[in-house]
Amino acid sequence: MININLNILKTCSSTNDIAKREAFKGSLEGSSYLSYSQTNGRGRNNNKWESLKGNLFLSSIFRPKKNKIYWHQLSLLIGFSILETLIDFGININLIELKWPNDVLIENKKVSGVLLEAFDNFIIVGIGLNISKTPINEIKWKTTKLNDYIKNKMSLEQISYKILNKIFHNYFMWQDMGFSPFKNKINEHIRNREKIISLTFNSLKKPIIGVFLGLGDDGCLQVQVGKSILNYYSVETITFPLDDIL
Questions:
Q1: Is it the case that residue 132 has pLDDT exceeding 60?
Q2: What digits encode the pLDDT tens for the residues 197-237?
Q3: Start-end ranges of CATH 2.30.30 in the chain?
Q4: For residue 245, is pLDDT > 70?
Q5: Considering only CA atoms, which of 94, 93, 112, 92 is closest in space to residue 102?
Q6: What is the mean pLDDT of residues 164-190?
Q7: Would 9 disulfide with which of 35, 87, 183, 222, CB 3.0-4.6 Å?
Q8: DSSP string, the chain
Q9: Tens-place pLDDT, residues 92-105
C-alpha cells in the first residue's frame, strides 16, 4: 500500500493547483493536499466550487501505470470510492447514489464532486465534500452536508485519510485487475439506471435518446436505442429528462 503524504494548508487558490505544481516538480504518487479554505475552487465543466470553511478540499497525485486509454475509468472509480467511504461512515446505503460520472448524492442532493485533470504522466484528483456547510449561491442542484447524516464527527484530516485509503485501495486493485471488478458494484449505486437518457455530440445536430443501462465492462455508458445496445465513451452533454438534478 502506498504511503499517503498529506500536506495541510491554511489556504490556497485551489488544492488542484498546488498538487499540479508539486507533480511537475516530481512529487510522488500519493502526495496529497488538504486546505482549510480555497480562494478559487473549481469543479467539472468549468463550474466554480464554492469553498466554505469547514468543508473538505482535497487533492492527490496519481501516476497510473496503465495505458492512457483506460484513465477515463478513474473518474468513476474515485466517485465510487467516496461513496463507499461515506457508507463506512454510516450513511444509509439506500440513500446514497453515484451520479455519472463522479458526483455523490444523498437523498437526491449533491454532497461531493470530483475534478480530474490529466497530464502527460500524472493525474490530479480533486475532491470537494460538504461536511458542515452547504453552498449559499448554488442554483444548479440541491445540496446537502455530511454532518446531517452521521453521529461521529471527525476532523478534516481523519476524513481525508479515510477517503484516500479507500481510493488508493481501489486504485491498486484497478491497476492489477482492471475495471471489471467494479462494474457491478458501481451499477448497484449509479443514478438513473433504466431511465431515459439524452446524449448530445458535437458531430450531431439532434441528441440521441435511449435508456441508460448502466456501465459496460470497461466503464463505458451503455444505452439502449431501439433494439440496439450502444457504448459511449465521450459525449458533449448528458441529461436525464425526467431527473430534477442536473
A1: yes
A2: 999 987 777 899 999 999 999 999 999 999 999 999 888 88
A3: 196-239
A4: no
A5: 112
A6: 96
A7: 35
A8: ----EEEEES-BS-HHHHHHHHHHTTPPTTEEEEES-BSS-B-GGG-B----BTBEEEEEEE---S-GGGTTHHHHHHHHHHHHHHHHHT--TTTEEEETTTEEEETTEEEEEEEEEE-SS-EEEEEEE-SS---SS--SS-B--GGGT-SS---HHHHHHHHHHHHHHHHHHHHHH-SHHHHHHHHHHBTTTTSEEEEE-TT-SSPEEEEEEEE-TTS-EEEEETTEEEEES--SEEE-TT-S--
A9: 999 999 999 999 99
For 4, phi then psi, to 5°, come to -85, 115
Residues of the chain with CATH 3.30.930.10: 5-189
Interatomic CA distance for residues 145 and 50, integer angstroms = 13
Mean pLDDT of 140-163: 92
The C-alpha cell at 164 is 484516500
CATH number of 5-189: 3.30.930.10
- At the topology level of CATH, where does 196-239 sit? SH3 type barrels. (2.30.30)
Residue 45 scores a pLDDT above 60: no
Cell of 14: 485551489
